[in-house]
Amino acid sequence: DFLFFWGAVFLVTTTLVAFLKKENQELIPAKEETKGITDTYKLLFSIIKMPAVLTFCLLILTSKVGFSAADAVTGLKLVEEGVPKEHLALLAVPMVPLQIILPLVISKYTAGPQPLNTFYKAMPYRLLLGLEFAFLVWWAPKVKHEGGFPIYYYAVVVLSYALHQITLYSMYVAIMAFNAKVSDPLIGGTYMTLLNTVSNLGGNWPSTVALWLVDPLTVKECAGPQGHSCATAAAAEV
């Protein structure tokens, strides 16, 4: 029902825009140079070969390794420990207004000459919240009872998620502000797309590796025949 409703809203609004919105016929001189596909890629390679850009790309490709496991695995582990998926989904609702307000608040601090300062300041707190998430997973079976989980446990989870959102958005908005600041206005769209793509990759590859490593790094004990291993998924199923 949720997907159907928003799918209908999306179709109606885009159709209205298509029929009712008229293009501005006045020719406005473009401030940004437009190039063909080949020229654009040549330009991208010339940008990425610059020492400062190369160093920055290495920074943002590796900066999120420290919190990849906490970001990617915490929710799955909480479900594994018995926290109902629908309860976790409901806990995401209070985060929505926070996600709307945070960029507005943080942008005041990233508008200055050194937007990456906010990024650096948020990083240690986000790393510490990784330990907090590990504690939440460890704590889950300790407080679980027949009726589920106590209210105070959910309150701690919501608070932890809220603090996590603050650090996450502080880093995200700071990187976006920095990318906008350093991009050459003549090729701003191309320049920013390159930096934002590298930034997105910097968040995605560590999460993928973290998910891939969950099984090999998880210690399991088997109740059954002597000497039987349950290190792999197939062996655990047996």
TrEMBL record:
Task: Indicate how the chain sits in the lipid bilayer.
Answer: Multi-pass membrane protein
Q: Name one GO biological process term.
A: acetyl-CoA transmembrane transport
Q: GO molecular function terms here? A: acetyl-CoA transmembrane transporter activity
Q: Which InterPro entries match?
A: AcetylCoA_trans_1-like, AmpG_permease/AT-1, MFS_trans_sf
Against Pfam families, the record matches this protein to: Acatn (PF13000)
Where does it sit, as one GO cellular component term? membrane
Query: Principal place where this protein is found?
Result: membrane
Please list the coiled coil stretches: none
Q: Where are the transmembrane segments?
A: 6-22, 43-67, 87-106, 118-139, 151-175
For this UniProt record, give its keywords in alphabetical order, as a comma-separated list.
Membrane, Transmembrane, Transmembrane helix
| Location(s), subcellular | Membrane
Highest taxon in the source lineage: Eukaryota
Name of the protein in its database record = ACATN protein
Supply the source organism for this entry: Rhadina sibilatrix
Upper classification of the source organism reads: Eukaryota, Metazoa, Chordata, Craniata, Vertebrata
